[in-house]
Amino acid sequence: VLYTRVVCLEWLCQCCIPEWCVWNGYASAVCQSGVFGMAAFLPDQRYTQAVMSGQGFGGLFSSIANIIALAAGHSPQGMAVGYFLSATVVLFACLVATLLMPKLEF
């Protein structure tokens, strides 16, 4: 039974995880190109710059959150809950902004 579990884990690490990473990369590329395509329809280059700045801030935010979580000595489960909650808050703020944007003058 132990040998079967080791073989299954080895298969998972060698086959499924790299394939998942490739598909995740494809999905990210499609999403990112869609966002840049939507920003390109806007009349000024500042909007494309804002998209790029937002992506940079997202990377900076996740790095700072990781440093704080490691410095505080949280468990991996606690860190996962914190990351999930912060992502939920950001997504909710984006949803609210998306619903309010059509009501603003452009």
Tell me about this structure.
The chain is mainly α. The chain is built from 3 helices and no strands. It has helices at residues 2-40, 46-72, 76-100. It is extended.
Summarize the structure.
With 106 residues, the protein is an all-alpha fold. It is built from three helices and no strands. The protein has helices at 2-40, 46-72, 76-100.
Looking at this protein, list some descriptive labels.
106 residues; mainly alpha; 3 helices; 0% strand
Proportion of strand residues: under 5%
Counting DSSP H or I runs of 4 or more residues, the number of helices is 3
| Helix content range | over 70%
Distance between the termini: 65 Å
Largest sheet: none
Q: Any low-confidence stretches, pLDDT <50, length ≥5?
A: none
Structural class category? mainly alpha
**Secondary-structure element string:** HHH
Report Rg: 20 Å
- Which shape, going by the Cα principal axes? extended
The pLDDT mean sits at 80
- Total number of beta strands: 0
Topology record:
Elements: H1 2-40, H2 46-72, H3 76-100
